[in-house]
Structures are given as C-alpha cells and as structure tokens.
Design goal:
about 220 residues; alpha+beta; Glutaredoxin; Glutathione S-transferase Yfyf (Class Pi), Chain A, domain 2; 8 helices; 4 strands; binds glutathione
Length: about 220
C-alpha cells in the first residue's frame, strides 16, 4: 500500500491525503515530524532529500513534494488536472499560489496560535498573527474572490488540484482559529465552505482534529 511520510497537521500532507481520497486510493501514514532528529534520519532523507514532509513511497518507488506526488498520482482514478491546456495551467497556477503566498501567510497564524503554545510551550507571536491577518492575507483573498467570479471552483468548472491546494491552506487557517470573513469576501467564504465539506477534506480533518486534541 502507498505510504505518506509526514503528519496530518501539515497542509502539504493534507494535499496528498485529499487527492488520494478523491482518487479512491487507500494508504498508510508513517508519522514523521519535520524537525531534528526525525528530519535528519538517513532513512527519511532517502525518501525526502530536503527533509520536508510529505514524502511518499509506493513499493520501491520513492518521491517527495506534494505537487510532484499529485502529478505522480494523476493517472490514477478521477483526474484532478483539466485536459484543456489553458485550464490545466490555471489549475497549476492556483496550486502554486496556495503553496507559496497563501502558505507563507497562513503559517504564522497556525504556528503562533497552536504550535507555539501547545507543542513548544511558548507564547505565540501576536504581532506575526496580526501582520498575516491584516496585511498578508487580505490582498491574497481579494484576488481569489475576483478569480472565483460566479464559479464554484477555481479552474475548469470542476474540482481540481487548484481546489486541493487552496482548500488545504484554508483548512490550515481554520485550524489556526480563523475563517474567511463572509462580509468582505462572500464568494471565497462560500467556496471555503463548499470545498472543506467535501468528504475528502472532512475525512482528513478527523485525523487532524484528533491530533490537535491529543496535544
Ligand atoms: N514544496 C513542499 C513543501 C513542504 C513543506 O514545506 N513542508 C513543511 C511542513 S508543512 C516541512 O516539512 N518543513 C520542514 C522544513 O522546511 O525543514 C511540498 O509541496 O511538499
């Protein structure tokens, strides 16, 4: 059975879990926290040379990076990439947008609201949370609100890798105790509700909630 190497609280691990669920593929999770010493274990470095999660193994095949793993999985089960070249590029663009800019601005909220106080027993940095919520995220949400228009999904009129990746970051924000303000971004807020209530995201959230409650 394929194995994800990583922990469910990572948005990049979530991308792979959601994609596997959407594709109907069963998998195991080998928990790896991406900090020394686990991150530097030679066996893990063979799977993920950069020491990041998720790593992915399927028999003898070994690969890492959520976007690369989703690409590897693409020929299995329902497609998450559009056939049309322009829509495919659009879907991949939103995946990149989520993995870079959204990730950078969602991380300080989750880290300082949950990881710092609950895992590291230290006070979170409120200034970093405020900067992300008041400066970093609003222009990113403005863009998504505009790009959604009257559509239900971000590309090709159906659920794609764009929604896997953006949904993974919106869920990370939710785990940091925040949600999209429906008064300011009504389309994005409705989109978040639509994506995060899919069975794939809800199933991923069960393990995430369990892990958070155990910490
Ligand atoms: N581009 C990578 C990013 C993965 C990533 O940054 N994962 C974080 C956890 S959320 C990590 O492993 N961080 C440890 C590190 O950067 O040393 C992907 O899409 O898989």
């Amino acid at each position: 059975m394929p194995t994800i190497h990583g922990v469910p609280l990572s948005p990049f691990v979530r991308k792979v879990r959601v994609a596997l669920h959407e594709k109907g593929v069963n998998y195991d999770i080998e928990p790896v926290i991406p900090l020394p010493p686990a991150q530097d274990e030679p066996a893990f470095r063979k799977i993920s040379p950069l020491g990041k999660i998720p790593g992915y193994t399927d028999g003898d095949f070994v690969i890492s990076d959520s976007s690369v793993i989703l690409n590897y999985l693409e020929s299995t089960g329902p497609a998450l990439l559009p056939d049309d070249a322009q829509q495919r590029a659009r879907a991949l663009w939103f995946e990149e947008y989520a993995d870079s800019a959204l990730a950078e601005n969602v991380a300080p909220v989750f880290f300082n609201r949950f990881v710092a106080p609950k895992v590291m027993q230290q006070e979170g940095d409120q200034a970093a949370i405020d900067a992300a919520l008041n400066e970093g995220l609003p222009p990113l949400f403005d863009y998504l609100e505009e790009q959604l228009g009257d559509g239900e999904y971000l590309a090709a009129g159906r659920f794609t890798v764009a929604d896997v990746a953006v949904g993974a970051m919106l869920r990370q924000l939710q785990m940091g105790g925040e949600s999209v303000d429906a008064g300011r971004w009504p389309k994005l807020a409705a989109y978040a509700e639509r994506i995060l209530t899919r069975p794939s995201f809800k199933t991923a959230a069960e393990a995430e909630n369990q892990m958070m409650e155990s910490m």
